[in-house]
Amino acid sequence: MKNSHGCSGISAKILKLNMSYISSSLTQMSNKMISSGTFPTRLKLSEIHPLFITGDKMEMSKYRPICLLTSFSKIFKYVIYRRLYHHIN
User: Fold this and answer.
1) Where do the structural domains in the chain lie, given as residue ranges?
2) What is the model's pTM?
3) Is 48 helix (H, G, I), strand (E, B) or coil?
4) Does pLDDT of 86 surpass 60?
């Protein structure tokens, strides 16, 4: 499990360790997002970090952007995907 996190500062590892405590709240939030058809603006924020590829470190073209989303947005994206997939099939 990765320790990276987005702007929330909460890693996926922390969420997984505490899932039994927060699963009912996450379920309610995902149900509300689906029923209202909205995705919270705060969960759309991300941190962008440059990742060096190879070559001259002073040349900007030798970097690519890495976008770190919040762990919560990844969870909700997965929930929505699974529900849509189940609905379509």
Assistant:
1) 12-88
2) 0.65
3) strand
4) yes
